[in-house]
């Protein structure tokens, strides 16, 4: 039983430690910043800015690892790189893969990039909320057992011991 409780509490922590904390932080920043960045990028494109100008504008508005990626893509676009190759730099980050896929689809189909990005921002935001909800539910289920174990001694002392004492006192007094 003790081993099961230790495994139940220790396995998620051990799995979380497998990924380096710097990589986990970077991925968390990218995941959190992506919906807003994509919204801003779509707004810039709707306003008539070129993709490299829009990327530079968004990179200055949102600091962090996403700004570095956007600056790199804008730099490649400004140097005249093939758009598909320039945008492919986003595929290096797992959080940006759906974004890179949406860009690829838009480039191949000729669909307006701003509409694609608007849909992507909504989808990314929903996925982020869903992931946060799943984390909250996981915490809820992981805390149920320890809390139950904390209340068990109080339950025994306040309900079971007095009941047993009431039953045994008449027999012990004779």
From TrEMBL:
Q: How does the entry describe its membrane topology?
A: Multi-pass membrane protein
GO cellular component terms attached to this protein's record: plasma membrane
Residue intervals of the Type II secretion system protein GspF domain: 38-158
Q: What is its main location?
A: membrane
Q: Where in the cell is it found?
A: Cell membrane
Q: Which superkingdom is the protein from?
A: Bacteria
Q: Which residues cross the membrane?
A: 144-169
In the record, what lineage is assigned to the organism producing the protein?
Answer: Bacteria, Bacillati, Actinomycetota, Actinomycetes, Propionibacteriales
Is Transmembrane included in the keywords of this UniProt record? Answer: yes
A Pfam family in this protein?
T2SSF
Q: Which UniProt keywords apply?
A: Cell membrane, Membrane, Transmembrane, Transmembrane helix
Protein name per the record: Type II secretion system protein
Organism source for this protein? Kribbella turkmenica
Signal peptide per UniProt = none
């Amino acid at each position: 039983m003790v081993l099961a409780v230790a495994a139940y509490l220790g396995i998620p922590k051990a799995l979380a430690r497998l990924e380096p904390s710097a990589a986990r932080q970077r991925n968390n920043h990218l995941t959190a910043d992506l919906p807003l960045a994509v919204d801003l990028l779509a707004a810039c494109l709707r306003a008539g800015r070129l993709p490299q100008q829009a990327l530079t504008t968004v990179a200055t508005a949102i600091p962090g690892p996403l700004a570095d990626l956007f600056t790199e893509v804008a730099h490649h676009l400004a140097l005249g790189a093939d758009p598909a190759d320039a945008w492919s730099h986003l595929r290096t980050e797992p959080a940006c893969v759906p974004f890179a896929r949406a860009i690829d689809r838009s480039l191949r189909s000729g669909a307006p990039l701003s509409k694609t990005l608007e849909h992507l921002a909504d989808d990314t935001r929903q996925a982020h909320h869903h992931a946060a909800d799943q984390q909250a539910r996981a915490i809820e289920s992981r805390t149920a057992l320890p809390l139950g174990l904390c209340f068990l001694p109080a339950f025994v002392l306040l309900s079971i011991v007095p009941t047993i004492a009431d039953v045994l006192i008449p027999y012990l007094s004779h």
